[in-house]
Design goal:
The protein is mainly alpha-helical and about 90 residues long. About 75% of the residues lie in helices and about 0% in strands.
C-alpha cells in the first residue's frame, strides 16, 4: 500500500513539473496561489470571529482552505451550506 501511495505521489509531481515547464508558467503562479490562500484564510477568520454569523464555526484546515482558495466566496457559501445541512444548524 505504501508503495502505491509513493508511486502516485511521484507520478503527480512529475506531471505537475512537466506542465509547469511546458507552459512556461515559471514561479508567478506560486505568488498568485499564495495570495489566494492568504485571502482565503483571512475570509475564514473574519467569518468565524467577526460575529456576523454567530452559530456557525468553520475550522481553518487544509480542506476548507483549499475549498475557499479554489472557489473563492462561493466556497465559503458552500461550506456554510454543508455545515447547516449536515449538522442541522440554522443561521
Amino acid at each position: 500500500m505504501r508503495g502505491a501511495i509513493w508511486l502516485v505521489l511521484i507520478v503527480c509531481v512529475v506531471v505537475l513539473a512537466y506542465l509547469i515547464f511546458k507552459k512556461n508558467l515559471g514561479i508567478s503562479w506560486l505568488t498568485v496561489f499564495g495570495a489566494h490562500m492568504a485571502l482565503a484564510a483571512i475570509a475564514l477568520y473574519v467569518i468565524n470571529y467577526s460575529g456576523w454569523i454567530t452559530q456557525v464555526y468553520i475550522p481553518i484546515n487544509p480542506v476548507t482552505m483549499g475549498t475557499v482558495t479554489i472557489l473563492g466566496l462561493p466556497g465559503i457559501a458552500l461550506l456554510l451550506g454543508l455545515k447547516m445541512i449536515l449538522f442541522g444548524q440554522a443561521i
